[in-house]
Amino acid sequence: MKLGCMQTLKVIKRVDFGVYLAKREGADATERVLLPKKQVPENTKIGDEIKVFLYKDSKDRMIATTTEPKLTLDGFAVLTVKEVGKIGAFLDWGLEKDLFLPYKEMTRKVQAGDEILVRLYIDKSQRLCASTKGIYHILSTHSPYKIGDEVEGRIYEFGHDFGTFVAVDDQYSAMLPKHEDVSYLKLGDVITAEVMGVKEDGKLDISMRKKAYMQMGDDAEKILDILDSYAGVLPFTEKASPEIIFRETGLSKAAFKRAVGRLYKERKITINDGKIRKV
Fold first, then answer.
1. At residue 212, does pLDDT exceed 80?
2. Which of 37, 201, 243, 248 has a 20 to 30 A CA-CA distance from 255?
3. Which of 130, 128, 127 is nearest to 115 (CA)?
4. pLDDT (0 to 100) of residue 33
5. Pick from 197, 198, 246: which is nearest to 219 by CA?
6. What pLDDT, in 10s, does the model give residues 239-262?
7. What is the pLDDT of residues 63-111, one digit of tens each?
8. pTM of the model
9. Mean of the pLDDT values across residues 36-46?
């Protein structure tokens, strides 16, 4: 019998509170599992085969259910956070007992109502748990998308040197570059992006930014707003380091330079003494 999996088992014993299932007739108490009475199909008799899912109840006893959960062992799915407690979060996966997501298995903290991508695993105590880690290795790399396509994807991991990991259509492996501003996003957020490249292994490089000529106007407006917050004087120019530019504006150096150039041509700013001033 496999914990966390759908499988077909045989009815070997009937009791007042349900039926016992096993792989074979004559199985002893350690080789059988209870299917509660309310889950037993009508007219079930000894020797019948029933397709069930095996998990553990609140007392850590293995138990069967005919309900197929939204997630099975080593798979991944989008689940809703029902509540967050002191030791972790509890997710709705379609069964009476919610699925536990420990804090140590979160790539970022979650809140009730969040819809997040998780996988199912068996912990050291032989209990089924959810994790937001390790999803990168089980997403598909055979997407139908090509450069220039618009896609939707769910953020499932932050904070890597390469960028932010996204599951396009909740199933295809993709990544946002590290210079894109994701500070306003949280785990599970769905974004719209453009495919900028397809790697040899099939993984997608995507960007939330529009094509340069379209994005430039938005970036220029953003810089004007930042100038207002700096009392009209920005204490650095496009010659500043990429780290400073991104920290202060959320833009890459190239995007900042394009937007500043546009504002300069439109005579909305002046550039001198290592500073940008709003006209």
1. no
2. 201
3. 130
4. 93
5. 246
6. 888 888 888 888 777 778 888 888
7. 999 999 999 998 999 999 999 999 999 999 999 899 999 999 998 999 9
8. 0.71
9. 91
Mean pLDDT (the chain) is 89
Could you please state the CATH topology (level 3) that the domain comprising 76-135 is classified under.
OB fold (Dihydrolipoamide Acetyltransferase, E2P) (2.40.50)
Rounded to whole angstroms, how far apart are CA atoms 267 and 57? 69
Cα–Cα distance list, 43 to 9, 35, 66, 114, 187 (Å): 16, 14, 15, 41, 46
pLDDT digits (tens, 9 = 90+) for 144-197: 999 888 899 999 998 767 789 999 999 999 999 888 878 888 999 998 888 989
Q: For residues 3 and 55, give the distance between their C-alpha atoms in angstroms, rounded to a whole number.
A: 6
R_g of the chain computed on alpha carbons: 27
Q: How far is CA 239 from CA 11, 193, 202, 236, in A?
A: 75, 29, 36, 8
d(CA 153, CA 94): 23
Q: What is the pLDDT of residue 60?
A: 84
- The first and second tokens of residue 26, run together, are 């004559």
Task: Name residue 261's amino acid.
Answer: G
* Cα gap 279→268, rounded to integer Å: 5
For residue 99, give every residue at least 6 positions away whose Cβ sits within 8 Å of its Cβ, in sequence order, or none: 69, 71, 79, 90, 91, 92, 93, 118, 120, 128, 129, 130
Looking at 3.30.70.560, 2.60.120.260, 2.40.50.140, 2.30.110.20, the CATH number of the domain 139-207 comes to 2.40.50.140
